[in-house]
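To: structure subgroup
Subject: Chain for Friday's discussion

All,

I'm putting the inputs and outputs inline so they're searchable in the archive.
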Amino acid sequence: MPDTLRAATLLAFDFGLQRIGIAVGQTVTNSARALTTLNAIDHEPDWVAIEHLIDEWQPDVLLVGLPLSDDGSESALCDAARDFATRLTRLDLPVQLIDEHLTSSEAANHLKAARQSGARRRRVRKGDIDALSAVLIAEQWLRQRDVQKLT
């Protein structure tokens, strides 16, 4: 079966030094949803929890958001995100970096608007923003994949 038609599951990571937002996506539904936000343990990603999610979801690809600046230049966090992506490769899955600048602000705006409209009752927490940012990373990859299928 051609790769563009094969069903695939992906896990997307919105990497941060304090928290990592994680989302799951499916190529069959062409959608993604937030899974969780993991807190760093002693300034390190929670590798046990990450490996548990990978065992549970059996993804075909892992996506890591690369926090580029608005002008496309490297932000201060890019090296740490690349290091995280490199360390994910030890799990024997393909890892792709995705430009994710503005996903955090887009996620925060979306969650704040939902709260103001009454669609969301509890306050917006940083972990909620990170998890929704991971969804946006996954959705961006799914959109790029759809465009590639057309060309």
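Points worth raising on Friday:
DSSP finds four helices and five strands in the chain.
The two ends are 18 Å apart (CA to CA).

D.
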